[in-house]
Amino acid sequence: MKTLEHYQLLAEQAAALIEGETDLTANLANISALLNMNLDNINWVGFYLLKDNQLVLGPFQGNVACVRIPLGKGVCGTAFSSNSIQRIADVHQFAGHIACDAASQSEIVLPININGRTIGILDIDSPITERFNEIDEQGLALFVEQLQQHLVLP
Asked: For the residues of 32-61, what is the DSSP string, one character each?
């Protein structure tokens, strides 16, 4: 099980990784790789970004994914529209879940806010039900909070 200290270390590594780089795509690509290398029992990690009033697939690690997600739909669209973390123990129990990968059983989605506006989400899937706990939620919230301070919009 990961600790808050583990997530703090990941946040520091992410900050060092993207320091001085202003390209959002490059930074999100490296962040998804960093998380993929350091989180156990996940099968997808990546970003969806707001474009033309919908979420569009951004940098990720894992199997092919849904390219577009309507705002307010599925776990990702709900997290974006409500600007709140969605930690789902069993995605099959989430009304309106969008199954991009049939192997995914649980999911956590965190909105990303830059300069006071929500620009996208961080999505992490697991092939195990109840994979994400309160420590993961707190740690990833800390991770995203620190990440938001270093990302630059195009």
From this structure: HHHHHHH-SS-SEEEEEEEETTEEEEEEEE
Would you state the pLDDT for residue 69?
96
Q: Residue 61, Cβ neighbours under 10 Å: how many? A: 18
Burial 71-84 (b: 16+ CB within 10 A, else e): eebbbbbbbbeeee
CA 118 to chain centroid, in Å, comes to 13
What single DSSP character describes residue 70? E
Question: Which of the listed ranges 2-6, 48-52, 96-100 does the model predict with the highest average pLDDT?
Answer: 48-52
Residues present in the chain in total: 154
Q: What is the pLDDT of residues 55-107, one digit of tens each?
A: 999 999 999 999 999 999 999 999 999 999 999 999 989 877 777 777 899 99
d(C-alpha 108, C-alpha 76), whole Å: 9
Phi, psi of 37 (to 5 degrees): -75, -25
Task: Report yes or no: 91 and 78 within 8 Å, Cβ to Cβ.
Answer: no
User: Which one, of 43, 44, 50, lies nearest residue 68 by Cα?
Assistant: 50
Would you state the structure tokens that stand for residue 33, as one six-digit string? Answer: 């790789």
